[in-house]
Amino acid sequence: MTFKQISSQHAHFDRFVVEWTNQHTRQGRSIHCRKGCSGCCHLAVHATFPETISIAANLSVSCKSKLKNYINRLTGILPELRELKDYLKRHRQELGPCPFLGETGECSIYSTRPLSCRALLSTRPAEWCTVDFSELTEWDKQAYKTGMDRQIVAWPTHFVAATQDLGQKLEQDLLDSMRHDLGWSLSGNFAVMVWLEHSLQLSTMATQTEQVHEQLTSSGLGHRFLLDFSSEPTTAPAPIQP
Ligand code: SF4
Asked: Relative to the CA of 106, which ligand 1 atom is closest?
């Protein structure tokens, strides 16, 4: 899979998002995402490995340093994590924003950001994007649910379902294509995969599935909450969208 294929897939997805958003706003409804609004950049960001390769190859000095700090903080909490919900909560509260978030709330890799970032469109104001629902009162939870259009959102979240569905389908196409070409696929925590590609050059190991697996294990970052490695055989993948 080439960088060109991934960027054309991203472009295809962006066109879908623009068309969907235009149609939505023509109906008098709002999407609250704005430039400089970085609520979702404080969540654990998911990506496929192919999306991270060119980002890892073009890391700025500042991003490299922020990435290293993020990995250090993450490895500090890993041994204490027992459940996925603990990981998501502690990630939100203790790890800080995505290492690629700029000082003024802009994405420093906007044109190459992964599908999962492109797919998250908020139907509610930004403060709802980082809220911890376990800390809300019943009254607040009810207020959150009231007025939510279940035809549009990926219930029980307030994010648009159509963009998330297409984003997940395209991610799956990328992973199927990878497994078909190389014999393995990898997805998971975006920053962790950028770090692994930057420090280990996993992409140069190509079809050496065992070696890739060993490297992931010995990196200390092969935790089940962080990475999903698969070497299951796959049938011929669907062509990547032009
Ligand atoms: S890659 Fe960019 S848009 Fe995605 S979480 Fe990081 S800073 Fe935000």
From this structure: 7
3-state helix, strand, coil in the chain (%, to 5): 55, 5, 35
In whole angstroms, what is the distance from residue 90 CA to residue 213 CA?
Answer: 27
What is the rounded CA–CA span in Å between residue 217 and residue 206? 17
| Cα 235 to averaged position of ligand 1 atoms, centre (Å) | 32
Query: Which residues form the pocket of ligand 1, taking CB atoms under 6 Å from any ligand atom?
Result: 41, 45, 98, 100-101, 107, 109, 113, 117
Per-residue pLDDT reduced to its tens digit, 136-164: 899 988 888 887 888 999 998 999 999 99
Q: What is the pLDDT of residues 160-187, one digit of tens each?
A: 999 999 999 999 999 999 999 899 999 9
Distances (CA, A) of 215 to 46, 81, 102, 192, 223: 20, 22, 30, 13, 13
Which of these, 201, 3, 238, 7, lies nearest to 115 by C-alpha position? 7
Distance 155 CA to ligand 1 centre (A): 23
Joined together, the tokens standing for residue 92 give 């939100």
Q: What distance, in Å, lies between the first and last C-alpha atoms of the chain?
A: 13
Rounding to the nearest 10 degrees, give the CA dihedral for residues 121, 124, 129, 130: 170
